[in-house]
Amino acid sequence: MTNQYESPLSSRYASAYMLGLFSSDTRYQTWRRLWVSLARAEMELGLPITREQVAQLEDHIADIDYDCVKSREQEVRHDVMAHVYAYGKAAPAAAGIIHLGATSCYVTDNADLIIYRDALRYLRGELLKVVANLADFAQQYKATPTLGYTHYQPAQLVTVGKRAALWMQDFVSDVEELDFVLEHMRFLGCRGTTGTEASFVELFNGDTAKIDEMNRRIAGDFGFDRCYSVCCQTYPRKLDSRILSCLSAIGQSCYKMANDLRLLQHDRQVEEPFEKNQIGSSAMAYKRNPMRSERICSLARYLMSDVANGAMTASVQWLERTLDDSANRRISMPEGFLCADAIVRLAQNVTDGLHVNEKIIEKAVREYLPFIATENLMMEAVKQGGDRQQIHEIIRTCSMKATEQMKNGGECNLLRLLSAEPAFGLTEAQMQALLNPERYIGRCPQQVSDYVRAVRPLLADLDRTSAEITL
Prior knowledge:
Blueprint: H1 8-13, H2 16-21, H3 24-44, H4 51-59, H5 66-76, H6 79-90, H7 104-140, E1 145-150, E2 153-159, H8 160-183, H9 198-203, H10 208-221, H11 238-266, E3 270-271, H12 291-315, H13 326-351, E4 355-356, H14 358-372, H15 374-383, H16 388-407, H17 414-419, H18 428-432, H19 444-455
Antiparallel strand pairs: 1-2, 3-4
């Protein structure tokens, strides 16, 4: 514990990988790697930079003197130039060529692109673990009838597995959106103060082919195969908006599933994992609260609202650029990634240990099945010579009576009421024969199997290591 504020995302929720990725060390070492890449490309393309200077830069990527940086930044009020100064102290032979031709955004923006890409790739793998858990669960319960709900009112039967397949489909959609974002990410490169590359036109004596080659080489060093065709000093902030929108979509899917689970746990039908020694309430020792699903929903609200930052920032970048994006992005982008990471890890944990109370589900199905079967009963009564409109009215009035009895604590007596109507023409035994739940789940088992089969190729190379969650 310290006497300074600490973000719960870093102290409680996010993974070690994501915390490391957005750490100061990763960010500032990436700056140095970018300076090395720039110097190497400039040397190889004929600028007066020696191999010894590049080698010295390479030797001092990790040994950042943060005290030196802090002291220098207090003096010059510029974080990038403070790091240039500290790097020059560590690599004095190369001090005069660090950052040659570049602007601050060469390191800040390209480093962000590298970190965001790596974070998206990591999230993709974590999302697929949720998909894999749900695929197994859906397949296991693909034919288990359960009461469906519309408006949270009893509706036609579905299956436990079909409901899970719907959650899974949302997550697969998120993977597809994430893949789109990754596919269309580009590198900024080293483009100058307004994106004109004028400084490099000067350095390379008008040889623009060398400028293009320099940018290709730098981009290739960091795993990018292309740069933005046109840009200003920064990469387009539309990308931040697109990324946060993708993260928001992940939050939406997690929220939907977790909220459904909270409702189902209230009905004691499906429950999230609950450890042997877990405490549900400090006062009510009997309670078994869906706290992980509640936490998912709580964090998802933050993540879904974070998307507004990217949209607003992208919309107010005056002309070639302005700096009112910087402070916002330092918070909204890392926190968005850390929050998405936390939610997805919780979703992994929940979906890896769902508990289905089949007897309670069966009881709910049996209680409402007479109502659900009324359309089939009506068809059977018509087959026996009944009038469709008269049968419909009998079902309606008897259903209202049976519902009223249930609301007053009685059991469902719909079949008894119907059998007492001579015009209905069916005995209670005949109607009971039609009350097999499997008759009312439609194609659920086939739909689940077909969809799981379609999703399996996505999961072929997945590492299924379970996430460890701090409660």
